[in-house]
């Protein structure tokens, strides 16, 4: 018989979710702490700002993707009415 596999939870922002300070490894935490100190912030404040920046970039990427879509082709009835209004 087949085995049941539990579904994997997905990240809300396409897999690029920033790890919180609790889930960072010790090396990652040290690296982020150095970057935070260089920026003159606490580690928590630094991680929050990175999260906000990542979310803003994601929104900007969505806006540009929406703007780049080609205009939608008129529907069936719109084309039919347009043809009906044209002179013979």
Account of the protein in words:
The chain has 88 residues and is an all-alpha fold. Helix 1 packs across helix 2 (43-67). It contains 3 helices and no strands.
Write the layout of secondary structure elements.
Blueprint (H helix, E strand, L loop, with lengths): L25 H14 L3 H25 L8 H10 L3
Helix pairs in contact: 1-2
CA-based gyration radius: 25 Å
Please count the helical segments.
3
Element pattern in H and E = HHH
Regarding quaternary structure, how should these chains be classified? single chain
- Biggest beta sheet attributes: none
Which spans have pLDDT < 50 for at least 5 consecutive residues?
8-15
> pLDDT average, as an integer?
80
Beta-strand content bin: under 5%
Number of strands: 0
The secondary structure category is: mainly alpha
Instruction: Give the overall form.
Output: rod-shaped
- Binned, the helix content reads 55-70%
Spatial gap, N to C terminus: 68 Å
